[in-house]
Design brief:
This protein is an all-alpha fold. It has 5 helices and no strands. Helix 1 packs antiparallel against helix 2 and helix 1 packs antiparallel against helix 4.
Amino acid sequence: MQFIVWTKEHDTGIPTIDAQHRKLIDLANNLYEAIRLSREEQVIQNILEGLTTYMSEHFAAEEALLKEAHYPEYDQQVEAHRSFIQKFQEHKASKDFLELSDELFGFLKKWIVAHFLGMDKRYVPFLSKLTDGRGNSHKNGNKNL
C-alpha cells in the first residue's frame, strides 16, 4: 500500500528533479510501510535517517540550481526547505515517535504534495532555460543531481 502515489501531475519535466522527487516519495512510502507493519525500531530509524539524508541532499542540489538560474523566489524556496527540515526533525526527536506517526505522515504527505505541486512547479520555466532537459546545467555541466 502506497502512502503517496506519484502521478503525472507531480512531473516538473526536468528528469533529474523528477527522479529525486520520486525517490523522496519512495523513501516516505518505505517509512510508512515499515511503521504500518511494526518493523523493528532500528529498521525504522535506518529508513528515517536515509529519508532525512536524501532530503538534505535534494534540497541542496535544487537550491544550487535555483541560485544558478537567479530564480526570483530562491529565498522563499530555501526558507520552505529549512522550515520543513526543522519540523521534520522535531517529529523525529519526539519520544513517542511511533505514536505520533499519524501526525508525522499527515505533515509529510501534505508538505510533499503541496511543495511539489506548488513551489516547485513555479521554478520550472527558470530551470528549463538553465538546463539541457536532463537537469544538467548548460553553464557548468552540473551533473550532481
